[in-house]
Amino acid sequence: MTQRFDLTGKVVVVTGGTGLLGSAYCAALAEHGAQVVVADLKAAAPAERARGIRNPAGQEALGVDCDVSV
Asked: pLDDT (tens digit, 9 = 90+) per residue, 12-43?
């Protein structure tokens, strides 16, 4: 697969990261090298979702429950 963009060394925060689209964004961004932070309102869901995400360098994603509207 040809890399269209490289996010190695970048940190991305995906709000709503446990939803359908958010989960897809997290996986795609990690696939391109980003260190992913999965953020969502649900208490245990972000950490659970983050466990399944690794970037090519083997870094795991971080799950954080937070409310970005405050």
From this structure: 999 999 999 999 999 999 999 999 999 999 88
Say how far apart CA 33 and CA 9 lie, in whole Å. Answer: 7
Measured in whole angstroms, the distance separating CA 69 from the mean position of its chain's CA atoms is 19
Q: Kindly list the domain boundaries of the chain, sorted by start residue.
A: 1-54
pLDDT of residue 59: 94
- CB under 8 A, 24+ apart: contacts of 13-17: 13/37, 13/39, 14/38, 14/39, 15/39, 15/40, 15/68, 16/40, 17/46, 17/49, 17/63
Query: H/E element holding 27?
Result: helix 20-31
Global confidence as pTM = 0.88
Number of Cβ within 10 Å of residue 32's Cβ equals 16
